[in-house]
Design a protein that fits this description.
The structure is a single chain. This protein is of the alpha+beta class and 333 residues long. It has two domains: 80 residues, no CATH class; 161 residues, no CATH class.
Length: 333
């Protein structure tokens, strides 16, 4: 069908670019429909032009020569400001050019990096409890505060949205206002990603075993009162980065069952209280009298459960659990 489209007068512009990104776009469309038919996503819809887009070039549609990238049907190399250079001897396999809604261009290059080596083995293991006030609480008592990137830019973003709503649709002033909103969103995204990458890299470098909870973030954001702060915290992105960085550097990454009562269980005697509202940040065990910080206690229980799973494969919630999912993955390079 693509070959026939190129012969039509109305679609003649398809001949101006390489056929590879067009074919990749159709493959992505097929993936979207496959996910829809499997019930994983909604019906695919068209993307708005002002939201940017992307073009994926496989190895046959670009050249990497003398540290520069030449795309098919482009005489000049791309003018790239490199965030980091490709190591010598590495050959890119895929190049993706992306346009952000703020009209900022990005290029992503996929290649195998032989310079990534496993880190020296250490005997340190930690459990991690993810939260809102403290983004990360570790079992050794350390807390990392939540920067709340969206909250820092909330007033600025609110004014920009207010200005955008007053502009006439289709006008140039509305386009300028839309780009301003997009730039603020890009700034929030960039600062969040930078902070999360630095945090997860530090955790992986300092610890041999990392244990986290398998959180149902998609279900949590359905809470209208907490949806914004949960989305801003990016718990899913933290666990994703920890998983692949552990695989890169030869660390052990363990996820325990989301139904495990980490907050309600006393890490000293194992007693489980019946209720633990979110506003209770400190509590005292009625059995042994130990005073607990809610987050530190939860991280200690997460570590103990993760180590039990990794050693003997035991269920982390043997008492009438609806879910016995407890996975321990030895992620190796």
């Amino acid at each position: 069908m693509l070959t026939a489209w190129k012969k039509e007068e109305e679609l003649d512009f398809l001949n101006e670019v390489s056929c590879v990104p067009l074919q990749q776009g159709l493959r992505h469309l097929q993936t979207a429909f496959s996910n829809f038919w499997a019930g994983r996503t909604k019906y695919p819809n068209f993307k708005k032009k002002h939201q940017g887009g992307s073009a994926e070039f496989s190895k046959s549609a670009f050249k990497y020569r003398n540290g520069q990238i030449y795309l098919a049907k482009c005489k000049e190399p791309l003018d790239i400001r490199w965030s980091r250079l490709i190591p010598e001897g590495c050959s890119p396999s895929t190049v993706t050019v992306r346009l952000h809604p703020s009209r900022r261009w990005h290029i992503s290059i996929r290649f195998d990096d032989p310079t990534i080596k496993p880190l020296p083995v250490t005997d340190k293991a930690i459990g991690i409890d993810l939260g809102i006030n403290s983004l990360v609480t570790t079992s050794d008592g350390n807390k990392v505060s939540n920067p709340k990137h969206l909250k820092k830019h909330h007033q600025k973003l609110r004014r920009a949205h207010k200005s955008l709503s007053r502009k006439e649709k289709g006008s140039k002033n509305r386009e300028k206002a839309r780009r301003k909103v997009a730039r603020i969103h890009a700034q929030i995204t960039d600062t969040r990603k930078d902070h999360l990458h630095k945090l997860t890299t530090q955790l992986v470098r300092e610890n041999q075993t990392i244990v986290v909870e398998d959180l149902a973030v998609k279900n949590m954001v359905k809470n209208r009162k907490l949806a914004q702060v949960i989305a801003d915290a990016s718990w899913g992105e933290i666990t994703r980065q920890l998983a692949y960085k552990c695989r890169w550097y030869g660390r052990t990454y363990i996820e325990i069952d989301r139904w495990f009562p980490s907050s309600k269980r006393c890490s000293n005697c194992g007693h489980i209280v019946s209720k633990m509202p979110l506003n209770v940040r400190e509590w005292e065990c009625p059995e042994c009298g130990t005073r607990h910080d809610r987050d530190v206690n939860a991280s200690k229980n997460i570590l103990a459960a993760g180590l039990a799973v990794s050693v003997c494969g035991a269920s982390v919630r043997p008492e009438q659990s609806k879910s016995v999912k407890a996975t321990a993955m030895k992620l190796q390079t």
